[in-house]
Amino acid sequence: MAKDYYQTLGVNKSASQDEIKAAFRKLAHQYHPDKPTGNEAKFKEANEAYQVLGDAEKRKKYDQFGSAAFENGGGGGQGFGGFDFSGFQGGAGFEDLGDIFGQMFGRGGRQTNHVRRGNDIAVDVEMNFHDAVFGVTREISVTKDVTCDRCGGVGAEPGSKMKTCTDCDGKGTKTVTQRTILGNMQTRVVCPTCDGAGEIPEKSCTTCHGSGLEHKRKTLSINIPAGVDDGMMVRVRGEGEAIKGGVSGDLILRIHVEPDERFDREGDTIFSTARIGFTQAALGATIEHDTVDGPVELKIPAGTQSGATLRLKGKGVMDRGHRGDQIVKVEVVTPTKLNREQKKLLEELDLTE
Ligand code: ZN
Predict the structure, then answer these.
(1) What CA–CA distance (Å, rounded) separates 135 from 80?
(2) Ligand 1 centre and the CA of 232: distance in Å?
(3) Class assignment of domain 5-105?
(4) Is the domain covering 116-149+210-259 a CATH 2.60.260.20 domain?
(5) 113 C-alpha vs ligand 1 centroid, how far in Å?
């Protein structure tokens, strides 16, 4: 069943990121298992909805694909909606800009409108030529910070009462004066003690000691889509390091493709070479030729010149639902060892231009 995350958080589809954050905070307080109004199932539901809607990128995907794109993230197969492709040069997005501003204005706190995000994790994935063309499911193990199971990432021991945060007097934010290159600036930052909640637990979670995180080895089964190429990066949203009071970073797969001596590749086109004798070139022939789908029959037309190319339609690489072609370069091999009989016949033919 598709889940309506907007309904879960009680906001409408046009809600701003700030409204979504506020709605989540309200629900998290109401349903926190420690409260008399606590409800663990609803607390988890709200958290799941916020993990997606609280992240502008994920929210965009959700609006496009629905919750199915995110539901399998926890160890099951990863839906295609969770992927992004980018070349090696890709990198500096808004998140990175956020970091740059963070450094500029000092690390004392975070801007209230910037959702904290865990670190990305990069892993190298080796695969053969065939798997890159057709896609492959890989088990990938990473040791990383994950949201603590016992407290749901809140850091409070279940059943422990909450008390007003003394650092921010329950406001969740603090005004700090920061010295910057632009002069002194007054900024409102999320309270670092309560991470903006305005409350802290009387007793910290016994599993994570209040950090909301556990360091664990997690194995994911990831469907790497068809058509990846050497040097590509595949981004699996939300499978990087978790962070308390924010959204998880991404897992980035750096793809390495082993070469296949029979094939070269450029984008969705595969290139190969067929070596034929000159009788076949002159008279035409049907030969067997390798493709990534296995051997196929290739018709060599009569009078084919060395260096000519033939196209095998739809034998290339899958790219956005459409398969490219394979281009076969024909190489006519001139015989080097002829017996007396063959020499005599060739001389009689007299094939000079
Ligand atoms: Zn915990």
Answers:
(1) 12
(2) 36
(3) mainly alpha
(4) yes
(5) 26
